[in-house]
Amino acid sequence: MVLIAATVCTKSGKALVSRQFVEMTKARIEGLLAAFPKLMTGGRQHTFVETESVRYVYQPLDKLYMLLITTKASNILEDLETLRLFSRVVPEYCTQLTEAEILNQAFNLLFAFDEIVALGYRESVNLAQVRSFVEMDSHEEKIYQAVRQTQEREAANRMRERAKELQRERLEAAKRGQPPRSQMSFGSTGFGSSSVSSPANEPIAEKIPTTPARDTSSRPTGRSAMKLGSRGTDADSFVSRLRSEGDVAATPAAAPADKPPAPDQKSVHLRFEERLNLVAGRDGDIQNFELSGLLTLRITDENYGRIRVHVDNKDTRSLQLQTHPNVDKEAFRSQGIIGLKQSQRPFPLNSDVGVLKWRLTGAGDDKLAPVSVNCWPSEGAGGGCDVNIEYELEQEHLSLSDVNINIPLPAGNISLVVHQWEGSYVQKGRTLVWSVPLINAQQKTGSLEFTVTPAIPNDFFPLTVSWTSDTSLCLLAARGVSQAEGGAPVPFSHEVSLLADKYEIV
Question: MHD domain location, by residue (predicted)?
Answer without folding.
Answer: 265-506
